[in-house]
Design goal:
It is built from nine helices and eight strands. The chain is α/β, with parallel strands linked by helices.
Length: 257
């Protein structure tokens, strides 16, 4: 896959093409909960990993942080974000979250959503380590990611879910249990402060309505009905999500350096 242009074969970009703005596993509700837990204020130097289409960024900027830096790997997405986000101490950097180029200890808060899930476990650790490096002592790192439950989930079931997700959304999605997510964070030096979860109902009608509003939901519905290829892919994704509904969840975790 090229990181220059958006890969419209990937599940999250198909949903974005259909007009879906909320692409987080725990929905808008869990995103807002994570932002609330981070307690972002006017003194914060804030960094967001993989802002994507900029949905969460709009809420972050409403908090009027001292500075905002978005780290976006995809060139096309970064260009689109630069048109949306500008002004003093507001910038988008087209680079990798594992190697941001930012100074050590320059951020007070770092947030990343639905991006660690898409990485191999060693790559997750590299990104978490970079968050730790760029945070000041006492700084907070908030993540919102796809999860698995319970903590003692059978490894064969876990592997089967990861394989089905990779085949369906065409991204190497590797969700983890709560214990596994927390362990990755603590191994890089973080202290876990808060853990919240929400059902993974990304494509369920009630969640879509809650996330997108009535007008947005109607727009998505129309687009899906008039795009048969995308409709087929979305139905496949929803089938997998429903098949593993009891084993899949979403976590919002706040950790402290």
């Amino acid at each position: 896959m090229s990181h220059k242009t958006i890969n419209t074969e990937q599940g999250h970009w198909i949903l974005a093409k259909m007009g879906k703005k909320v692409l987080r596993p725990g929905g808008k509700e869990l995103t807002l909960k994570l932002i609330d837990l981070l307690d972002i204020n006017k003194q914060d130097n804030l960094v967001e990993f993989a802002p994507g289409i900029g949905f969460t960024a709009q809420f972050l900027l409403q908090k009027n942080p001292k500075s905002y830096t978005g780290i976006e790997l995809n060139e096309e997405a970064a260009r689109n974000l630069k048109r949306k986000i500008s002004g003093n101490n507001r910038k988008i950097i087209n680079t990798n979250a594992a190697n941001t180029g930012l100074q050590e200890g320059q951020a007070s808060k770092v947030i990343g959503e639905a991006m660690l899930t898409m990485q191999a476990d060693h790559r997750k650790s590299e990104i978490i380590a970079e968050a730790y490096r760029i945070l000041e002592k006492g700084g907070l790192y908030g993540i919102h990611e796809l999860g698995l439950t319970p903590n003692n989930l059978d490894p064969r079931t876990k592997g089967g879910i990861q394989l089905k997700l990779a085949q369906t959304i065409r991204v190497n999605a590797r969700p983890l249990t709560q214990n596994e997510w927390c362990e990755l964070l603590t191994k890089e030096g973080f202290k876990i402060k808060e853990v919240y979860k929400n059902p993974m109902h990304l494509l369920e009608p009630i969640r879509v309505l809650s996330d997108e509003g009535l007008f947005g939901t109607l727009k998505i519905g129309y687009n899906v009905l008039t795009h048969p290829i995308e409709r087929k892919r979305i139905k496949q994704m929803r089938k997998i999500f429903r098949q593993y509904e009891k084993q899949m969840t979403a976590f919002a975790i706040v950790a402290e350096k």
